[in-house]
Amino acid sequence: MPDSTVIGLHHEEEHHPELLHHFADAQQQRDSASLGMWVFLATEVMFFGGLFCAYLVYRHWYFPDFAAASKSIDATLGATNTAVLICSSLTVVLAVWAAQTARRTLLIVSLILTMLLGMAFLGIKGIEYREKFVEHHVPGASFSFDKVQVPGHPDQYANPHHAQIFFSLYFVMTGLHALHMIIGLGIFLWLLIMAWKGRFTPEWHTPVEIGGLYWHFVDIVWIYLFPLLYLIDRHP
Amino acid sequence: MPNPIPQPATPQPAIAPPVERENYLNAKYGVWSWLLTTDHKRIALLYLLSITFFFFIGGFFALLIRLELLTPAGDLVQADTYNKLFTMHGMVMVFFFLIPSIPAVLGNFLVPMMIGAKDLAFPRINLLSWYLYVIGGVMMLHCMLTGGVDTGWTFYAPFSTNFTNTKIVEAGLAIFVAGFSSILTGLNFVVTIHRMRAPGMTWSRLPLFIWAHYATSIIQLLGTPVVAVTIVLVAAERALHLGIFDPKLGGDPLLFQHLFWFYSHPAVYIMILPSMGVVTEIIACFSRKRIFGYSFVAFSSIAIAVFGFLVWAHHMFVAGMSVYAALVFSLLSYAVAVPSAIKVFNWTATLYKGSIHYDAPMLYAFGFLGLFTIGGLTGLFLSALGINVHVTDTYFVVAHFHYIMVGGAVMGYLGGMHFWWPKISGKLYPEGWARLAALIVFIGFNLTFFPQFLLGYMGMPRRYYDYSHMPEFQILNVLSTAGATVLGVGYLLPMVYFLWSMRYGKPAPDNPWNAAGLEWKTPSPPPTFNFDEEPVVTWEAYNYDELDSPDLGSPGNDAPHKQEVPVAR
């Protein structure tokens, strides 16, 4: 077979061990990987976009019920989680910078911190989910949302069916977001192992960059989810 | 300069069996060299095998449907079985044949070659996409063997979520997984076209096949995730009765239709755009002319992809949508006709005063032109609100979309398979048989589906297994079933002689059609990394005037295959 030696003839000056055979040079490989991740994130926007569309329709139709249901979830936990994720974005940026500037220890510490923050997020999310289970706010056979007042309208109770739609969207949206977090943790575990082995250099650290892109995207989804789900018509 | 790339391939001796060069087919042997390959050409062949398999499964369902409709009474299958037959026919054909057909087979094979790259940008993701397709396909097979689905391929809520007791979730998951495969193919193409072009291969020198695949990939990337999340909601709704699509609980079934058609209408353009790309290549080659209005054809592909996202609700005119919304969607649906017509007119202008050769690929391209035009024009009938109400859910709609999806997409696919078969296999197919098959497909197709326009206009509803209250529909149904038989023969023939040619066909020269395009400037079949030397492009696309000019090496060569005429058998 015309193996890599044949191809290598044209590019002997490059010869980075991570350069795959079908790329002309490292720059092309890095640009391709980066563009690939951006395009993938565009598909993710559309994936969540379908849910945001459903949310928009029902929030418009059933605003009072959505407000009442939103009030029943703990905004403090949500706000804490927002802060946790914003901090994790900082540690991701630090990790990318550390990889660019060959600071191996900082890279490893930043990756570990990112993962810890990600796990903290999932833990807090788990506490929230547990509360919902206890309060029978999980959609399905045991769902109940009786006699809950609409915020600002003491004489009006929320329609449990419409509140169930809110909680359905809440669980599907935050659930899919959490799934993305778990996948992100997997990616970062792999990055950590690679960093531990010293595989990343200022010349080649594309995985850290595109892994970071993915992590930032998942953070941004949360930045939208938080106000949409937790802060509907909140008054002190 | 007609041929700036040095061709290391020795010319094939006319009589003596040629010494076999190392190429992507004989570079390695064994099952694992195929199942673990990252070579885009081998993955294209894996796709070819698997989509052909699903094509015949879908065709089998179609055959049973046509047999049931041969007589007015519902005498071959039960009503419930019939519902499953047309559902599984649609699901298999749409998600497991048409959507992957041209992009995953011909696109996979040709996109890197046409732009002068060694492979797609992400070869391992390319292999992953095939495995995802296979996993989705196995799930779909399992679903079919254990009961199937009876909702129609559109699985409308709330029937799919609350009422039917067939395997909605399993079929949905199969489509979800196959959808990922489609997304990954599109992602690979977009990145490859942006980043992997050979030196000198500017955007305005790209073959229009590439432009068509670029537009297709955009739709795959932006549309498929929406149907994926819709499937998630349907599965959740079905498992837990959330009420998202259930009007009894405050949900909105129309929302399901909006989300579903937001993908599934553009999905039609996933099927037809690559076919248009194939036809553009064929028409330029067999009329020996530069394509008329290159940039118009290129940007009409992008325009179709963009407009395609804005017309989905024309599937819902009678669903209880606002009439004002219907008005807008009707207008936008007309707008899609503009870029489509630009393409048809530019192809016609390319043919005008061309030196036209009636080889098998060109016959398919002609077939495409006629059938796509009929399908497109009847699409305008359906965009008109008044006529749409009259023919909604009749055989008129069935005939219309089969003219686009079978008459258009499949004709292009077969034309492309013939055009590039010498490159893919290194062998020539028997030209006489191929022309005969093209003719049979064209006749069989029209015999099958043209009567359905009449049936639909007369009022025969789709999805009925029994029309004994209207026995006068039988004659047209008999015609249609007879046509389906002819069409079936037309589809089997190429499979037979392609397989035959792999063993007994004459060796193909590097460029049997004397065609422009980088893929013809490398041996047939190509070496593993496509080109022995990295190509440098210094010419415009479709430089047929240069290729055919008498003072440039190939004297007076206006015949596509002057040196090597395939022998009809």
Task: Please write out the topology.
The complex is a heterodimer of chains A (236) and B (569).
Chain A: H1 4-8, H2 26-61, H3 63-71, H4 75-100, H5 104-134, E1 149-150, E2 153-157, H6 160-196, H7 206-230
Chain B: H1 31-35, H2 40-68, H3 79-115, H4 123-145, H5 159-163, H6 168-195, H7 208-240, H8 253-286, H9 294-308, H10 323-351, H11 360-383, H12 385-391, H13 395-425, H14 431-458, H15 474-504, H16 544-548
Helix pairs in contact in B: 2-3, 2-4, 2-15, 3-6, 3-7, 3-8, 3-13, 4-6, 6-7, 7-8, 7-9, 8-9, 8-10, 8-11, 8-13, 9-10, 10-11, 11-13, 11-14, 13-14, 14-15
Notable traits:
heterodimer; A: 236 residues; mainly alpha; Four Helix Bundle (Hemerythrin (Met), subunit A); two-stranded antiparallel sheet; B: 569 residues; Cytochrome C Oxidase, Chain A; globular; disordered N terminus; disordered C terminus
A few lines on this structure:
The complex is a heterodimer of chains A (236) and B (569). Chain A has one domain (26-230): Four Helix Bundle (Hemerythrin (Met), subunit A) (Up-down Bundle), CATH 1.20.120.80.
Give structural notes.
The complex is a heterodimer of chains A (236) and B (569). In chain A, strands 1-2 form a two-stranded antiparallel sheet. Chain A is mostly helical and 236 residues long. Chain A has 7 helices and 2 strands, in the order αααααββαα. Chain A has a single domain, classed as Four Helix Bundle (Hemerythrin (Met), subunit A) (Up-down Bundle), CATH 1.20.120.80. Chain A is elongated. The N terminus of chain A is likely disordered. Helices cover 72% and strands 3% of the residues of chain A. Chain B has one domain: Up-down Bundle (Cytochrome C Oxidase, Chain A), CATH 1.20.210.10. The two termini of chain B are 37 Å apart. Chain B has 16 helices and no strands. The chains are: A mainly alpha (236), B mainly alpha (569). The interface between A and B is large, with 44 and 50 residues.
